[in-house]
Amino acid sequence: MKFNHTDYKKRNITIWNEVAPRYHKRWASVSQGPFASTSKLVQLLDINKGDHVFDLACGTGVVTKKISQKVGKSGFVVGGDTSITAMKIAKKWNDSKSNLDFVNVDAEHFYFSKQFDVITCQYALFFFPNSQKALKNIKKHLKKGGKLGITVHGAAEKVPFFSSIFDAVTKFIPDYVPPGSPDLDRFGTKFSLKNEVRKAGFSQITVKNFVFTFSPGTFENYWRNYLRYVAKPLKEKLDTLDKKERRELMELIRENVKPYTMKNKIIKFPWEVLILTANA
177, exposed or middle or buried, with CB in 10 Å at 0-12, 13-18, 19+? Predict the structure, then answer.
């Protein structure tokens, strides 16, 4: 079956509308694990008072909030996302200001009549099926010399929080993720990320890697919370496994997390994050 970009985007919107509230509570609103990157991204971009900034794929607004604090009353910030639910949370999470707005946009097709000093995009580039189209659209909306800031997760083996479960699950459910979907770690190396942004016409590209730590507690906590927070389409596929398969799956995941399990049975995962900055 041919991969359909429109269907993929619709599926992602449905998923994010569902998971946004718990995603915000568990991840985004606390600076734990990968979200320790938020302040790093804003810091590396050296955002100034008075800057006009667009936070693309703003999700529940954590980067937007940091930026808003930096630009002050003389600046302006727009947060944009495809998920209406995420943006509702973002509006509530961010204090209401006359120089802060949120818009429902697609990364490949958004249009503004004015250009920005800075555009940020945290944990989203890998979701865009046509990443080049999105990056070129970003470049078109940056002033000459304007700055781009992108954050992505590292390669799968550098983010075992995800891979420990995903590698195991796909052995039991090969189509756990729809065939043809973009690999979520396709920009997980400095080379691949830098090369993708360079192809879109950006210059002065720098990629820094950071390794954060995240502890989901014991294995039981890790697995139970995964089932609790996973999106409905994935949960439905997991529910097709019988008791024997489910038990075998759990044991395989347990083996995968052994290298990260301390003597007290608490898991501590390393979590690599890449942050790119570039000029238009």
Answer: middle
